[in-house]
Amino acid sequence: MASKVKSVYVCNECGWETSKWCGKCPGCGQWNTMEEELKDTSKKAVTSHLEGSSVYAKPTIINQIDTNDEQRYHTGLKELDRVLGGGIVKGSLVLLGGDPGIGKSTILLQICNYLGKTLKILYVSGEESKRQIKLRADRLEVDSDNLYIFTETDIQIIAEIIKTEKPELVMIDSIQTMNFTELSSSPGSITQVRECTNVLMKTAKSLDIPVIVVGHVNKDGAIAGPKVLEHIVDAVLYFEGDRQMSYRILRGVKNRYGSTNEIGVFQMEEMGLQEVENPSLMLLSGRPKNVSGTCVACAMEGTRPILAEIQGLATTTGFGNPRRMSTGFDHNRMSLILAVLEKRAGYFFSNVDTYINVVGGLRLDEPAVDLAVAVSLISSLKDVPIAENALAFGEIGLAGEIRSVSHAQARIAEAHRLGFTRCIIPYHNMKSINKKQLDGVELIGVKNIREAFEALTDR
Ligand code: TYD
Ligand code: MG
Fold it and tell me: Which residues line ligand 1 (CB under 6 A)?
């Protein structure tokens, strides 16, 4: 049959296909994302997961499924293992995303250094030359006879090499540079990224080899073709943090083999990424003393309580409309808290600019942080400092009430460990707290914002 090539327009954000070009994608509503691609309709689609695997499995009774052979490789970095749910699972495909220069290639080489002592590793780079990789490896003191460097971008050649060389771990840096030659679109486009990931997925599953894939993020901070890729891979890890600052936070966004929302904290140093075992201590270091407008909050990141300093600033507005800015905290949530403060607690912010900043580049989305945000703003407005040894957590309701939060015990224990002696917590959490191992911690249950603020300032 003669090949029929027709052109289609594919959205490079969500993968929506149309036969005609349009300015706004009907799928995701983004503008200017439709790109032309040539599609050969005479060929079969290359996307099916089952295609290529000759063995079709039969349905199995759940109790007869053996999970004992689930093998995990520890990466030598405890923080990374935690985010992965205990290590890299055999046959899994992990996507590692993040801004350029945040440390993705660095962490891969560090894993190679540790695992390369026992496993055969294939490191495929489409971005850097062998010499560049070697220079970085020397700097990170990578010393391994099992680490193979391969600079190639043709995904079919890479899949072939994986089949013949049979490495025990494969790293692809990055998926946007990979190219599936049968497709006409340029590397990095959504179709290319999807097909290349599919090839890797098939290879990973059929040979039971774990594959770690690096993915770049687009200008909005999402991995290119995010929705498409997230569905295919087993786990999505995401590097966050300010490039200017040395902290790097690794966050699990999706994980088929463990819990998500666990974070790993690293610090970029001369010798690559170093783990930060005590993130609360790091985030609280350099806290100003006796200054108004700062309050410590305790947020849960997965199973781990993390203390972070919230800074608020309220200044007289210069223009008609007051400014509202927040970094590391949801902007809408801040507006809501300001409205509650004004209507329910009698603190007036309608003619002041307000700023919120979570110190350390952390992003806190948990409602339990509400109270610390509210209190830091009031503290700045009144210019009354919060007691240095005090901390607050609780969700603020629209009626101005402080609502109970989960994991109160773990949060207080972390505060105790770091030397805080006064915890302002929701009143309804008080009865569930076991005070046994919390010597020297004064617990104050509060029902509304005013009570909380009074309990936090030095009496
Ligand atoms: P890199 O891993 O190349 O980033 P990505 O692959 O995510 O684009 O990280 C590069 C940055 O990290 C670079 O700006 C230099 C810095 N760096 C260090 O500070 N120390 C080190 O030991 C290494 C290897 C890199
Ligand atoms: Mg890189």
Answer: 98, 100-106, 136, 139-140, 268, 270-272
Q: Which ligand is nearest to the CA of 108?
A: 1
Q: Which atom of ligand 1 is nearest to the CA of 102?
A: 7
Write down the domain spans for the chain: 5-44, 72-277, 282-457
Closest ligand 1 atom to Cα of 100: 8
Structural contact between residues 75 and 212, judged by C-beta atoms closer than 8 angstroms? no
Which residue is listed with tokens 């509210």? 374
Q: Which CATH class is domain 72-277?
A: alpha beta
Give one DSSP letter per residue of 360-373, joined into a string: TS--B--GGGHHHH
Which protein residue has the closest C-alpha to ligand 1 atom 13? 101
| Mutation to probe ligand 1, out of 106, 217, 269, 274 (largest number of atoms < 8 A from CB) | 106
pLDDT tens-place string over residues 24-78:
988 888 888 888 877 766 655 444 444 555 556 678 888 887 777 678 899 999 9
Q: Residue 96: left (phi > 0), alpha (psi -120 to 50), or beta?
A: beta
Please report the atom of ligand 1 found closest to the CA of residue 243.
14
Tell me which fold the domain 282-457 belongs to.
Ribosomal Protein S5; domain 2 (3.30.230)
